[in-house]
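Protocol step 4 of 6: structure prediction from sequence.
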Amino acid sequence: MNATSGLPEQQQALFCIYCTEKIIDLYRPLVDKFNFGNYQLIRKMGDFVWSNLAAYTPENMQRAGQLREQLEPIVPDGDEYPGLESALAMNACICLDTSLNTFSGKKNVAHIAGLYVYDTITQILFSKLTEEKLLTEEVLTRVDNMTAVKNEIADQESVLQLISASAFDQSLVDNLRQQSVVKKYTVENIALS
């Protein structure tokens, strides 16, 4: 069981897009490095979810499903586009797909967005552990105990509590959108500590 499963779909979608917003800009380096993908479309999809959470209508739910179909062709293939940029862009796409999927009515998948933000942070941290050649249990534990990971877990728990305890309205959506923009991740702002 996950912490999002008891929330209504609208609140699950809010948690998903909150998580997505924090890593969505990590898609852009893939476009810059490999000239693959479409950052503007990714951004448009995220903005659609943010803009329509309060207008949770059957038409908007259907539109979210249609947007999901446009996402698939611009998800990077890790074999064709190797490296950290591709892995992080893929995580952003998975989060966005989960946001659109949840928005379109699929239940109990919202926790996936949180897991992929966690995965994004750990991948960046692993890339900075240049002295480590193998991901041993010791290295995994060391990364899980780093400040960036602990802060993200605490942030997700805090956001879930806020979503659960608050009446769903546009001010809640706006508040969380602003928080997610402030808390955006970049490779540079995740430190080994």
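Step 5 (inspection) to follow. DSSP finds nine helices and no strands in the chain.
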